[in-house]
Amino acid sequence: MADLIKMPVFGILLALIMYMIGIQINKRVKSPLTNPLLMGMILTIIFLKVTKIPYEDFNVGGSYITFLIAPATVALIINLYKNFNLFIKNIVPVMAGVISGVLTSVVSVFVLSKLLGLDQVITISIVPKSLTTAIGVAISAEYGGIQAVTVVCMVVSGIGGAVIAPSVMKILRVKDPVAQGVGIGTASHAAGTSRAIQMGEVQGAMSGLSIALAGFVSVLILPFLIKLLA
Length: 230
Known about the structure:
The longest helix has 29 residues, at 201-229. This protein has 13 helices and no strands. Helix 2 packs across helix 3 and helix 12 crosses helix 13. The protein is globular, with a radius of gyration of 18 Å. It is mainly α.
């Protein structure tokens, strides 16, 4: 049994099973708080704690899934391909929304970090919170951030966005589905997109598209912003 636990297949199967259980929980309890990603993480942690299986043993297989994050991120271009006509039709507001969203996210992190007295390492770790994992973690690592902190901030940003997005849209009276999708995708990446899909087809499509665009824009402008504001 000990040898099986240390095999890559154990970590891979455990992660997939817990995520699938998370999907079923979300189907039965339709709430942003039961997001499959969040449920999968919680269930995995509980399982490892109860069984006293070391994280290192689980991560032998988990590292394979981590490796697939980058190819999965590249696959986001499929959203652009499928919704190219919708994107071209709304290219100005979409790009304006994505760029302003990225700028607002980064500047607000630096301003709040200064006010709260956070050191630069923590600040850099928080900056990519609204990006998809592969891009955000890479940026954090490149500029000396703590990758674990970055991932936690991404989860909080994504789940938080999924929870409050409908209320924010209602309060601000944002009724256009394209604007809703761009806002959610830029601010809360894949976790928020799962909520956008529930709101409507256009919202889901534009949210998925905005994840890719936000990543592209961030790769171009974040190095300059970090050097300017750090």
